[in-house]
Design goal:
The complex is a heterodimer of chains A (290) and B (291). Chain A is built from nine helices and 14 strands. With 290 residues, chain A is an alpha/beta fold. In chain B, helix 3 (56-84) runs antiparallel to helix 5. The chains are: A alpha/beta (290), B mainly alpha (291).
Chain lengths: 290, 291
Amino acid sequence: MNAHARLRGVTKSYGSTVALHPTDLDLHPGVTGLLGPNGAGKSTLLRLLATSLTPSAGSIDVAGHAVTGTLPERTEARRRLGYLPQEVGFPRRMTAFGFLDYVAVLKEWTDTDARHAEVRRVLGLVDLAELGSKRISALSGGQRRRLAIAQALMGSPILVVLDEPTTGLDPEQRASLRAMLSEQARTSAVLLATHQTEDVAALCDRVIVLDSGRVRFDGRVPDLVAMASGQVWVGPQANDAAVVSWRTGTGAVRSVGGVPRPGSHGADPAVEDAYLLMRATVHNEQGVIR
Amino acid sequence: MTHTTPTADTGTFTVLARREMVHYAKHPLFLVGLALTVLVCAMGPDKNSSSQFHVIVPGAALGVLGLLVMISLVRRSDRAFEAAGTVVLPERTRTLALASATVVPFTAGIAFFGWAIWAYHDQPPLPSTMPFGDVGDTWAYAIMFALGTLSTVGGPVLGLVVARWLPFRGAGILVAVALVLVTIVMQGLVEPLRFVRVFMPWTYFGGPLGVEGDPERWVIMTGSPVWYCLYVVALCLVGVLLAVLHDREQARTPVLRALAVAVAVALVLGVLTMTQGVQATMVNPLPGPPL
């Protein structure tokens, strides 16, 4: 099956700083989670895919159109992708409907009826159908975030690139977003960068861990979780030898990595545990901490 | 779920341009400027000079305020673009669509021009004002068109350039104030600047500047308002090309070439404005009416 998006040897540098080391990726229909600490290169990778950044080297294709090729090719790629930037500054005086309608024109929806129908569809997808006539300045942070997601989903693009889409959403809205994205992912490649490991666990069938501009893990979510198998414990005492440990709401101490303390017992690992272990491994390799 | 990829056609620009025109027409600052212009015109022409000095109203209310309106529209378009992260239409198309929105103030400017000509004939200027001597009505019409009508386009076009190249907050106000100040200096009040004043995008060609012994005497200054009209049009073209040039993703060489040609044409037209028409300050032989 042809990949909806393909990166080959893609790098991005800002002066002497390498934000993304040579990276190869294929994105197929489904939801791919992109995990990594701040400054890992997640947003850079997403912006490269979204054509808002030009790579220093390598090639990127979206639906067979070279993002790194000529302008007409890049334009063809843009016709097939939706992108949610990390930070969105809205034209606050516009209404929610007016904003989406304007963006739809910028995305070449010229037929008024079809455009309005599409705007209503995406407003409905993010549960903002009733707020279409409200000015953006009057919307809450979560509502604005959903509005930004709505524009990314316009036209059901082949590639959907979302930078921290669940920021500012309440649990109900996050659940609703997950349902919507999983539906979208039946035909689209959805790549979402997030710090919310529970979103990855609940939604993604593939996860990529990026750290210091390098892909540290690329595989199925259960495979990532399995890496922490046998390394998560719950016990009564604090564990200084662990990579990380904390007292949970029940009063028990959950520790990841290191050696178990007396009286502790093994626990089922979660995506977050595996991610924290992987981060510790990376830092050990780099001699940063521990 | 099916992917819906709208296909590009020639209608895309038209749709966007129409949208920007609506945005312009609904902008509160434009509506304020329009209301001011209508109000002043409704008060009727001046008893001495008829409608000739009314040009300052659309110049300020639709031109200078238009600069701010356009900056606001560009910022709004840019914010929508940034919120979308990536869109199909390039910045150049958006810039040209915004430029085409100047049709809105221009229409108001044309309406003003129609009123100014009607008022000029309905209540002609006194012989002791202007025009006088060999200078006729065409001279007066050209001034009304250049300073009254074309300024309604010139201001917004300058706003387009400012918004594209000076993206900091307050740039519009700063440029508007600077423009007004420089324009005041370059109205022909300072004798040594009278000859070169026609290179300003807005300048008077005559008025009650006075002579020795009669501070209210009307004079006509050097230059050809007809050539000046063409000069201002060329300046507007230079402005649009400068704004279009900002898009780094598109090929810039053709734009640079067109810009070089437009600047050269504007310079030639500016020189023609200066060297054609009235070549020495003309003083009305009649004493000026009381102001």
